[in-house]
Design goal:
Blueprint: E1 12-15, H1 21-34, E2 38-42, H2 48-58, E3 64-68, H3 73-81, E4 86-89, H4 94-102, E5 106-111, H5 114-122, E6 128-130, H6 133-145, E7 154-157, H7 165-170, E8 175-178, H8 189-208
Parallel strand pairs: 1-2, 1-8, 2-3, 3-4, 4-5, 5-6, 6-7, 7-8
């Protein structure tokens, strides 16, 4: 049974690729304070399940914590064990999606083509993560969206930032994954806080059409 992507004031996923467990608490705190409500820690980060477990314990209700770069059902089980509720993958793996649904997780598999997008939608994905969005562009995503089931949640990841929210929103994108534009390894919590504030302000302007 698939899980819908939860309603959020701002459907923005902060991607903390490379974050270390000892940095997680400080960076998570500033992101939540800035208004971010979804945090993804990719599994190719140092000791990722420890970081995800820390984040899951600290996050208040309504903040979605999970893993990115999830490639196996075993990883989904480990994610569930540490309290993660968001499963983001770079590809469409039906077994991985099914296991995540068994655990009641929100799922965002990576898609690029109409074939992958339709397979993910048919497999009950909570949303479709178009990646790398910068290669498809807003117009490419809009063209594929035309053949997808009505109401499917579309996210763009890879090359999206506070500089181009508006064009993707016009193309039907409703959620964004934000990586290096928001966080890079070695950044201080203060740096991340400043970027998060600028990102949220830009998103709010884009939604208003300003």
């Amino acid at each position: 049974m698939s899980v819908l992507f939860p309603p959020m004031k701002r459907p923005l996923v902060a991607i903390l690729r490379g974050v270390k467990p000892e940095e997680t608490e400080a960076i998570l705190s500033v992101l939540i304070e800035a208004g971010m409500t979804a945090i993804e820690i990719p599994l190719n980060s140092p000791d990722p399940f420890r970081s995800i477990g820390t984040a899951a314990k600290l996050a208040p209700a309504g903040v979605l914590i999970g893993a990115g770069t999830v490639l196996s059902a075993a990883d989904v089980d480990r994610l569930n064990d540490v309290g993660g509720k968001l499963m983001v993958s770079p590809n469409v793996d039906v077994e991985v999606l099914a296991r995540a649904h068994q655990h009641g997780m929100v799922t965002l598999p990576g898609v690029f083509s109409p074939t992958e997008a339709l397979l993910a939608a048919r497999s009950g994905a909570s949303g479709l993560k178009f990646f790398p969005a910068s290669v498809l562009g807003a117009s490419g995503i809009a063209a594929i969206r035309a053949i997808l089931p009505a109401g499917v949640m579309i996210a763009a990841v890879g090359g999206v930032s506070d500089q181009n929210f508006a064009e993707y929103i016009k193309g039907g994108v409703t959620a964004f994954g934000l990586g290096s534009g928001l966080y890079k390894p070695g950044m201080s919590a203060a740096d991340v806080a400043a970027r998060a504030k600028a990102t949220i302000e830009a998103y709010d302007r884009a939604v208003r059409g300003g």
